[in-house]
Design a protein that fits this description.
This protein is of the alpha/beta class. It is built from 10 helices and 12 strands. The longest helix is centred in the last third of the chain and has 28 residues. It binds NADP nicotinamide-adenine-dinucleotide phosphate.
């Protein structure tokens, strides 16, 4: 299948590029500077030229707190831009996958969220992602909305790296215990998205790591697996005073008949740490070789 990836240089987009290539697809990816999803004409002419069978839209405004200061900016990329991409895909007969977020939910259900649950975003970012879901589905009958959560992967700044950096530099960290979700390894999600390419079950799909934890529990597991002795103190969301409100509990599970299940967040974390170690070892080796020249 000819697959075109938008936001291909981002944390998830880069893993999707690799996973789709591994699966034997003919893959082309575009980063922000190569193809801007807020430019409908650029999308249209690119898609006309490449004639993809499927598009995976990983392009997004992902600065959750920054979105509160610039709602129009977030809406333009996550809402209007998503609609542009979906319409351009429909125009060449391509199906599209839009990656969305657990932040489309309010987080007050007190239980796991399934696809049919009522949305109710409490942040500008969440509103813009919901607008993107609607715009994607409206513009293309062959569209899938994949909601995932709490992503971490090798190609982006993420919570795991932040904890390790702070743990190493300060020996102690303060982490919120009253937000619960499912930390998802982008490599696992990328494989799930690529598997979904083979399906014609359009609509909403929840695809996050199995199991759930708080950020505090996640941090404890990061330090345990990294064999780091770091004092981990628990805090409340209120103590941090972040600009954007976050859902208190946004655990995603799928009620779809043929749901694609991802491994547990603990498996994802262990695999990520192994990958990080191997990437760092390779980088150290090549800088040694460079120095020896
Ligand atoms: N990170 C999470 O915890 C999380 C959780 C749930 C869902 N998601 C969703 O997962 C998807 C991937 O997120 P990620 O974590 O991989 O984010 P990311 O690393 O920030 O990747 C997003 C990419 O989109 C690009 N982009 C921004 N504006 C664009 C535009 N107008 N046109 C084309 N590309 C544009 C960015 O490029 P520049 O950086 O150069 O602007 C970046 O490379 C997003 O849809 C996000 O909403 C993320």
């Amino acid at each position: 299948m000819k697959v075109l990836v938008l936001g291909a240089r981002g944390m998830l987009g880069s893993d999707v590029m690799r996973a789709a290539t591994d699966a034997g697809h003919e893959v082309r990816g575009f980063g922000h500077t190569e193809l801007d999803i807020t430019d409908p004409e650029a999308l249209r002419s690119r898609f006309e030229l490449d004639r993809p069978d499927a598009v995976i839209n990983c392009a997004a405004w992902t600065d959750v707190d920054g979105a509160e200061d610039d709602p129009e900016g977030a809406q333009l990329v996550n809402g209007t831009g998503a609609g542009n991409a979906s319409a351009a895909a429909a125009a060449v007969g391509a199906k599209i996958i839009y990656v969305s977020s657990d932040y489309v939910f309010a987080g007050d259900k007190g239980d796991d969220y399934v696809e049919a649950d009522q949305t109710g975003p409490i942040s500008v970012y969440g509103q813009s992602k919901l607008a993107g879901e609607v715009a994607t589905a409206t513009a293309n009958r062959r569209s899938s909305i994949v909601r995932s959560s709490w992503l971490f992967g090798i190609n982006g700044p993420n919570f795991v790296n932040t904890m390790i950096r702070l743990g190493e530099s300060q020996g102690q960290v303060l982490v919120v215990h009253d937000q619960v979700g499912s930390p998802t390894y982008t490599w696992h999600l990328a494989y799930g998205l690529v598997r979904l390419l083979d399906s014609d079950e359009f609509g909403i799909h929840h695809m996050a790591a199995a199991g759930s934890c708080s950020w505090y529990e996640f941090a404890k597991e990061i330090f345990r697996l990294s064999q780091m002795d770091v004092v981990t103190l628990s805090a409340t969301t209120e103590m941090f005073g972040a600009k954007a409100p976050r859902p208190a509990r946004s655990v995603l599970v799928s009620a779809n008949e043929h749901a694609i299940q991802l491994p547990s967040w603990q498996d994802g974390l262990a695999s990520y740490l192994a990958q990080k170690q191997s990437v760092e070892a390779t980088a150290a080796e090549s800088s040694e070789t460079e120095r020896g020249k």
